Structures are given as C-alpha cells and as structure tokens.
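Schema walk-through. Below, the input block comes first and the output block second. Nothing else is stored per chain. Lengths vary across the set, and this one has 373 residues.
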Amino acid sequence: MPSPLSRRTFLLAGATASAALTLSAAPAHAGHRPRRPFGRYGSPSARLTPGTLYVHPRGAGDFTSVQAAVTAATGTGRTLVIAPGTYRETVSVDADRTGMTWLGASENPRDVVIVHDNAAGTPKPDGSGTHGTSGSATTTVRPDGFTARWITFANDWLRTDLPGTSGTQAVALKVQGDRSAFTHCRFLGHQDTLYADTLSLDTFARQYFAHCYAEGDVDFVFGRATAVFDHCHFRTLVRPDLTAPPYGFVFAPSTAGANPRGYLVTRSRISSEAPDGYYKLARPWVPSSDPTARPMLTVRETRLGAGIDAVAPYADMRDAYPWQEQRFAEYRNTGPGAVITVPGNRPQLTRAEAASHTREAYLGDWRPYDRHR
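--- output ---
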C-alpha cells in the first residue's frame, strides 16, 4: 500500500486509460518526447491552420505556457497544439473562447501533462482567504464547443500538505461549457478530481468523455452537467489516512431537478488499488446553492471491480437527501462489484427503461461520438 508522500512521485505516471492496474514509482513529469515536437500537426513555420497556436515548454512554439496561448487565442475556433512536457500552471479559459480545441501533439496523454497543486483549503497568495473547491482547479474550461484530445489534467496536492484541514478538495479539471468533448484524456487527483459542471443552475450543459481515465478517492467525478462517460476507466485509490471503509465515492452528481439527464456511464470499468469493498459507487450531492437538485446517475454495461461495495454501493451525503429519493440506476453491469445481494440497494432499469439511457438520448442533436474515437 503506497505511503501518502509516494503518491505525488507517481501520480502523473498513473495507470493509462487502457492498461496498467499497478502504479510504479516515477518522477512527476511527462513521458517520451518525439523528435518532431508537434507531431503531425505542423509547427509555427507551417501552421495546421491560420488559427493554430503552438505551445512548447522550451521555446520551440509560439508560447511556453498553456495559459499564455489561451490568452492570445481570442475569437472562436482556435486550436492549441501542445508539445510533450509538464506544464505546471493553472489554466483558465473564458467563455468567449468558443469552439476551442487542444491537441496533445504526440497523441499519447502521458506526454502532455497540465498540473498544479492547489486545494480548497490552500491560502490564496494575496491573503484574501482560501481557494475553495472551484478555485482549486488546475484547469477551468468555460466555453461551449471545447474539445481536448490526448492530454493529462492533474492536481497533485496531497492531504499531508494541510494536515487536519477540511479543505481537501483538489480539482484537476472543471469543465462547464455545453458540447465539451474529451477523448483519450487522463484526469488525476484525489478528492474532486473531475468537476463536470455547468455555468449556471439553469444551464443544462452536455459533455462527452470517451476512452478517458480518471482516478481519485472522494467524489472524484462530480457536478451537475449532463455527462456521458463512454468506454472510460475509473480507478479508486488507497487512503493511508484511513483504517476502515469507506475510503470514498466514485461519483457525486448534483443534477438540477429540472434536468432530465444527469451522468451516464456506459461500456466502462471501475478498478481499484484499495481493498475489496472499500468504495461506494456513488452518493448524491445536493449543494446548498441548489436544494432542489435531484442527482442522477445511470451506470450500464460496465464492469465494477471488487473495490466497489456490492452489498451497499450507494450512500447519503446528507441525511436530508437520501440516495433512494434520487435518480440512481444500473443496467446489465458485470464484475464482483455488480453482484446483487440486496436488491433494494441496487435499483435496476428494465430493458424498456434502458432504451432512454443511451448516449444518443443524453446528447440529443450533438453527436461527438461520430468523430471522437
């Protein structure tokens, strides 16, 4: 079982979306660097399109930081080609950068890593308080029509950095825009790793994650977006600071009550480096900002590993909002964590009901799966 301090040393070398269930010690930096830093996507002297900008950590591109490129990429439909490297920075993308695309130049998400180490309880540099959950995000993406491929988004803050603090949320990516698509990306962190959210309570943003990998412990995929996770791999981590279950929860949706579509996990898998049964599949998040929220999660045709508590896979976040009154359901899942031992604890869709819980139904006239493979 890894020590808490070792997590930072191998966090960014974590399991890929396609393999490796064991993490080995490695420096927190990106992988190999190809001879052509921008791969098949041109260069500053031969741009892919006039609206393409190039990021390279050692000066071979237009910018050495992702944030500098985002700031310069005014207007719509801009593309950032990001060379292999570790970009230790926070990145914030304003809502007016619509139609933006980020490409990891090597087409391997291990090679392009955007990482920082703020937590909710981390003091702000100006002394005005702490960051809070949203402010802890390494990368915040607000515009509609955002696409990212082959990139790792990480937050390598550790609980040992602020012993005894309650502000342990540390977001790797917060995404809020409609029609946001992430393909072959990694999301690495501990608590609140991937924040799939919206810009406002009355906005039903659609988001699509395909062939992605996410790891964490407490509520590490959370928020109120309509989000589809297609062929993704979720991995639960050990908790050296705890001696008994539960270690945490994979999903914590906060779907607005008026939104007919919340989180859909389809054809995916959940694995664990923690002991068997030490994780819950989900718990509902009804935030104080939206007490009318009615969290929604459907997990279908997904392999649930032994790390998931098969007897009681759901739990309450607050007694006032029991999970049984929310919109949690499963359909044709497999694996030891999907075994139904107490039927009342495993709400199942009928075949007829499952027909309305598909990526097509959730995403409507937006069909990112036709091109993001």
